[in-house]
Here is the input.
Amino acid sequence: MSTFQESKIILESELNSMIGTWHFLHQTPDTTIKMQFIIDKKEAIALSVILEPFPFPVEIHTVTVEGNLLLARGMSQFVPGESFEFDLTFENQEFQGRIKLPHQEAFFVKGTKGTGPSLENLLISKLSHYRKQDVKQRDDQEIRQAVEALLNKMSITDKIGQMSQCMSTNLSLGSDIDSDTPEKLIREGSVGSVLSAVNSNRVFELQKIAVEQSPHGIPLLFNFDVIHGFQTVFPVPLAWSCSWDMAAIREASAIAAKEASATGINYNHGPMVDITRDPRWGRVVEGAGEDPYLGSLIAKAQVEGFQGDSLFDPETIIACLKHFVAYGAAEAGRDYNTVDISEGTLRNVYLPPFQAGIEAGAGSVMNSFNTYQGVPVAGNRYILNELLRKELGFDGILISDYGSIDEIVAHGNAKDSKEAAKKALDATMDIEMVTRSYDHLHELIERGLVTVEQLNEAVRRILTFKYKIGIMDDPFRYVRPEKEKEYHFHPKHLGASRKLAQKSIVLLKNNGVLPLADKGQKLAVIGPFGDSKDMLGPWQWSRYSKETVTLREGLQENGFPKTHLLVEAGCTVEEALDGGVERAVAAAEQADIVILALGESSEMSGEAASRMDITLPKVQQELAEAIVRVGKPTVLVLTNGRPLVLDWFEHHVDAIVETWFLGSQAGHAIADVLLGEYNPSGKLTMSFPVHIGQVPVYYNHFKTGRPVTESNKGEKFFSRYIDGSNGPLYPFGYGLSYTTFEISDIQLSQMQMTDSETMVASVTVTNTGTVSGEETVQMYIQDLYGSVVRPVKELKGFEKVKLAAGEAKEICFSITTADLVYWHPNLKYGAESGDFKVYIGSSSLDVKEASFELLQPTQSKTDKVAK
Here is the structure.
């Protein structure tokens, strides 16, 4: 054997000895840090880093191996511009080396192979003497008395502290940076809540300081953005809205609350209930789409799921409706941008989901970043005090979004942060998220610019909820590491995630190629999402992301033989791979059917992820064109967080399956649909444009004075484009099935109705296909004329119906005056007499219609928002 061969064997041996999971524990004066290194090898050595108890993910971008030395460099989006450095030497079952974290001096560590002890186990032994038994829920009167007694003991500084929030870490892990550490702020009583403590050990450490060392020992609220699951990740909200299944969405929210509360989180920064019409806006992924009626039902379901029957239940968390209000109307779909809308649009389109969430009992509301009528919402007394508190009757906690009080200055509505703090307090803002403008309140009180009573009102609301959730009497009741171990990623939770993922998938096109009934066929899975674990989407911080089920894994575990799967990435999400297209084409040529697994990465959706161009990245388009030229039946499977422009694919592939970001069980759910184990039933909640130039395109638009009709659609002087149609590629409410449904003409119980009557509109739905399936029958209403113009149609009801092949069922919708009420300046909220149309069908476009007349409507004498 040559020296070269011997050296190669030694190098491979050293390399193989690194493969696996390693860990170390590092004790600082304030906390125990645990870090895991997961090293594996595919085409090259890959390193994953899990850092506890801090929430920010570390992305490794370079890994070099020199003998038994591993050198890695990475970064985190939460510490921009700063690097993570790991220089580690491995020998037998141990490693040692140098680690450099952002804003901190390098330090030396020693560790061993294996996952190591969990921080939860280390905590369980500490908690026994902190536990309290038989803590009883206080009634409202007892809470009021306790709050007033505590308020009387508190100084102005103490009260400002309750109205302030800090992060669970200053991201330095203890180094000297501009801001004080959370430990110091809590010890001084300078904060009343903490953001992003996502580990029970960290919650315990910080709560212990608050209870034992801060003035008055007032426990902390622990806040976090629990958007679509905690450790078990569910489909992103835009996806689960396509299920139109309120019970499943409520269950997903309840499971998320159960997992998060076990960690110690008791205050959610969600749900987001913004209506969204512009798919360029990255945050459409967090909402329920373009319709206020459906959005209201989903807002209610989420609040009920997060908060349960009682906030005193330690497996529930406070729901926070965000972002109040009209954040989804940002011009050009650009995040944080200007909003300029009429009050009618505000009240008829953007307000209803917030009203529904407040009526469901949401404990908190968060302001939006935008302006309304030229005034930033964070300091807008009309929006927050007059509308939210007085008109809608919201008496819960109002919390600023991150930095939004400081941003009153950036908007140009305040000279400095001192004036911004006054404006926010005058607007009844209770908690400032993380920034410190409220530190100026002491001086503002001394100068007589704000009053102590304004602070008292805010602190009353904060303390009231601290009593409601039980932490004033039992500060550590949410710190349950034993439940954390039991609940996180529980098989039942994974099962619920898979079921909701199935229901969230929307079949956009199918010429008969799906389902893939013959598992003897050769299947080429081509594209960057064929074997990717980036299926969770934005707004998740699961420690189990590496266990996300990929499409390849889902197909294999669903019985598709590994020998019949040809998997080629072809390219990455945004970059070419050397020889990638050639290998993908070769795989397609060998296959009977091709799955094109394309889409957006998680970072391309969410906050600060607006896109000018909502087509697939160019490199994926080029891959798709090369594969389609092969001539095999081709199915496009999309992973994405927004509606995309798919006109080319509509004309060139055989089937299109919109899967969104489906969460922990994504691969299983997609395989269930592709293989026919689940008949797709999802319906779009946002319209898909034909071309980017149409955006925003949505179904409930106005007619204009020159509406396009069938008879004039080829003429020039109407409200149309000269280079394309007005309509979407796929409209709101659209979604196909593996069976077909027929909906009969509408039967009305009467042609006229008064304000006290109920009219019934009925249709018969028949499954005209060969397999059982589920249809979502949708009812829309149009007010044909009035004192202000009304949309061409508005969703006012729907029913999901399961039918066996050949089965028929009558569906009945009740129509009352409440379905006809809207806001307009003269009547405020009311309905007007006149002619209406009712539409019933399988989407906002595919409907039957009938006409009726309202004779004597009720005209509201109050300002109460219509349901």
User: Anything to note?
Assistant: The two ends are 82 Å apart (CA to CA). The longest strand covers residues 773-783.
